[in-house]
UniProtKB/TrEMBL annotation:
SMART domains linked: SMI1_KNR4
Superkingdom of source: Bacteria
One of the Pfam families matching this protein, by short name: SMI1_KNR4
Domain Knr4/Smi1-like residue range list: 27-169
Species: Cardiobacterium valvarum
Coiled coil, from the record: none
Protein name: SMI1 / KNR4 family
Length: 185
């Protein structure tokens, strides 16, 4: 699924539930995307990059994504907010030295609480819940896979294989649980 089709489906859901229209911000510029890739030291996942080329974030309280299997809506971070959340993850990582999450981590995800290739793109009450594009998976993972950080208990979890899959699963989750995922009026 492409992001434009996904957004169109979300606009319809917002309308059908009588909500204030979904607002996304104007696209990130080519210069901003190039600067981000230079600062990150890697090319953005093409689907995520295309997403920022069509919209550069959403209002913080508006749901753009939902994590499959959970009933919480996530806002879409702007490119600048995404880079800031990544920086915050790097700064918080040392406090996790010696901390083990309750469930063993999926073998597709690198160990630790920060990897240079992790880039948050969606949040609920950031930094409590983050959806992250993983550009540095283990050998058994896939570049561009989607992972999640959840606070309390703190975990890094596998979500799905890629951004397109997330869009399909996210839309299905929002449609199945609109009262939990969509914002209240």
């Amino acid at each position: 699924m492409l992001f434009a089709a996904y957004l169109n489906a979300l606009h319809i859901l917002y309308r059908d539930y009588g909500l204030e229209p979904l607002r996304t911000y104007p696209p990130a510029s080519a210069a901003d995307l190039a600067a981000a890739e230079a600062a990150l030291g890697f090319a953005l996942d093409p689907a995520l990059k295309a997403t920022w080329q069509s919209a550069n974030g959403s209002d913080e309280w508006q749901t753009v994504f939902a994590r499959p299997g959970y009933i919480t809506g996530y806002s879409f971070l702007s490119l600048a907010d995404s880079l800031r959340e990544r920086e915050y993850m790097a700064h918080r990582a040392p406090q996790y030295d010696g901390y083990e999450q309750e469930q063993p981590r999926d073998p597709r995800i690198c160990s630790g609480w920060y990897q240079a290739g992790w880039l948050p793109f969606a949040a609920f009450s950031a930094p409590d819940l983050l959806l992250i594009a993983d550009h540095s998976p283990t050998a058994s993972g896939q570049c561009g896979q989607i992972i999640a950080f959840s606070h309390d208990p703190d975990t890094i979890s596998y979500v799905c294989t890629d951004f397109a899959t997330l869009l399909e699963q996210s839309l299905a989750t929002i449609r199945e649980h609109p009262e939990d995922c969509l914002p209240e009026e």
